[in-house]
């Protein structure tokens, strides 16, 4: 896995679009490291994401997220990186990601996202009526993922099919 400009494959996308599953499969196919930004936030702070939101608010979380993302992208090792759904909200994060490798946006329709996130109550931004929160946030973020180099609609694809599409683009960029 060698790239002239940036050796990272970076997955962005709304919650429930499959970043976590797809990043695991990609890292195994590419035989490289996988880094999950949320997992790194939890391991480096010693706090759950929901606790950080509760104690420091969303902006406090975004500050930590930006710092951890920059740290991960500064590492030389080729890697697949799964970001949290809101990591794209800051321009500095977007610029850094674009300069670090191939940025792939995973998308899915609202019904599929709601289906995927409903059984998981760990996401602070989806507390309460998850379906209505998803619809509101999807509207607020409708162009937030457009900056990515490529987008893959995962609505009716299996994780393996998503990986195949991404591998094709990745192969062309080498
Ligand atoms: C967030 C998405 C979450 C996590 C945090 C905020 C968001 O990650 O970073 O709860 O703002 O969309 P996932 O996209 O992995 O669920």
Automatic annotation (TrEMBL):
Membrane-spanning segments: none
PROSITE patterns xref list: SHIKIMATE_KINASE
Keywords: Amino-acid biosynthesis, Aromatic amino acid biosynthesis, ATP-binding, Cytoplasm, Kinase, Magnesium, Metal-binding, Nucleotide-binding, Transferase
Pathway: Metabolic intermediate biosynthesis; chorismate biosynthesis; chorismate from D-erythrose 4-phosphate and phosphoenolpyruvate: step 5/7
Annotated Mg(2+) binding sites: 20
Binding site for substrate: 38, 62, 85, 141
Domain of life: Bacteria
Sequence positions that bind ATP: 16-21, 123
Keyword match Ligase: no
Cofactor(s) of this protein: Mg(2+)
Cofactor note text: Binds 1 Mg(2+) ion per subunit.
Compartments it resides in: Cytoplasm
E.C. number(s) listed in UniProt: 2.7.1.71
Pfam families: SKI
Catalytic activity: shikimate + ATP = 3-phosphoshikimate + ADP + H(+)
CDD domains: SK (cd00464)
GO MF entry, a single one: shikimate kinase activity
InterPro entries hit by this protein: P-loop_NTPase (IPR027417), Shikimate/glucono_kinase (IPR031322), Shikimate_kinase/TSH1 (IPR000623), Shikimate_kinase_CS (IPR023000)
Subunit text: Monomer.
Family membership noted in the UniProt record: Belongs to the shikimate kinase family.
Record function comment: Catalyzes the specific phosphorylation of the 3-hydroxyl group of shikimic acid using ATP as a cosubstrate.
Name of the protein described by the UniProt record: Shikimate kinase
Organism: Paenibacillus harenae
Gene: aroK
């Amino acid at each position: 896995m060698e790239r002239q400009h940036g050796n990272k494959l970076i997955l962005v996308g709304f919650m429930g679009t499959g970043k976590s599953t797809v990043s695991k499969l990609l890292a195994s196919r590419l035989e490289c490291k996988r880094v999950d930004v949320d997992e790194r936030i939890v391991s480096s702070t010693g706090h759950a994401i929901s606790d950080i939101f509760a104690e420091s608010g969303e902006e406090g979380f975004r500050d930590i997220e930006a710092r951890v993302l920059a740290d991960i992208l500064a590492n030389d090792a080729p890697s697949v990186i799964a970001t949290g759904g809101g990591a794209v909200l800051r321009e500095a994060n977007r610029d850094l990601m674009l300069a670090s490798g191939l940025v792939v946006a995973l998308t899915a329709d609202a019904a599929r996202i709601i289906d995927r996130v409903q059984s998981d109550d760990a996401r602070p931004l989806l507390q309460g009526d998850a379906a209505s929160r998803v619809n509101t946030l999807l509207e607020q973020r409708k162009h937030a993922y457009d900056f990515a180099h490529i987008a893959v609609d995962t609505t009716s694809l299996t994780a393996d099919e998503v990986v195949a599409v991404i591998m094709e683009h990745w192969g062309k960029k080498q």
